[in-house]
Amino acid sequence: xxxxxxxxxxxxxxxxxxxxTPTEAAALLDKAGWRKGPDGxxxxxxxxxxxxxxxxxxxxxxxxxxxxMVSQLKQLGITSTTSVADDIVATMNxxxxxxxxYAQHTAPTGDPSFFLNQFFxxxxxxxxxxxxxxxxxxxxxxxxxxxxxxxxxxxxxxIQHQLHEDEALFYLVDPQWYVALSQRVSAYQPYxxxxxxxxxxxxLR
Length: 205
Prior knowledge:
alpha/beta; Dipeptide-binding Protein, domain 3; three-stranded parallel sheet
């Protein structure tokens, strides 16, 4: 898994979102009473261990990631169902899933506050999972009251450590960009995100 939600080029980069190894995960499942049956699938009290995965159609790369997850879960003895939604926000707000594969630009301006407040503050506009923590809310209040600088970056890292401890979400990948241009295109400069590709200077020769 990748580092926290802040880009690796920023001072507010958070902790590595690592989990147990497959061997450790299998041991944890065994300890919890989820044992593999003859078919290799884990059961407990006669119930098979199944997870419901969901992603959305407008980012086809996420469906590939979801299928990799299905394969890895199967190796652990966990079955999965998958679905691809047209409106992922509405789908997540309804619930009825266990894992959602979701992509988000976490620092469109380089500042960590926007993403952290939108997605992890209690009642935040994009808090789609219902995560709520008084500790995190208090840390966000402190972050928002600080001026840019090393101390504010450190506070953002502290918040990400809290999210890591709470297992609010898992950061899987930071996609690479590949750019191919025609010689007719002028004034194009790659930007570290997908929001500002076309601007007032972009055009054709």
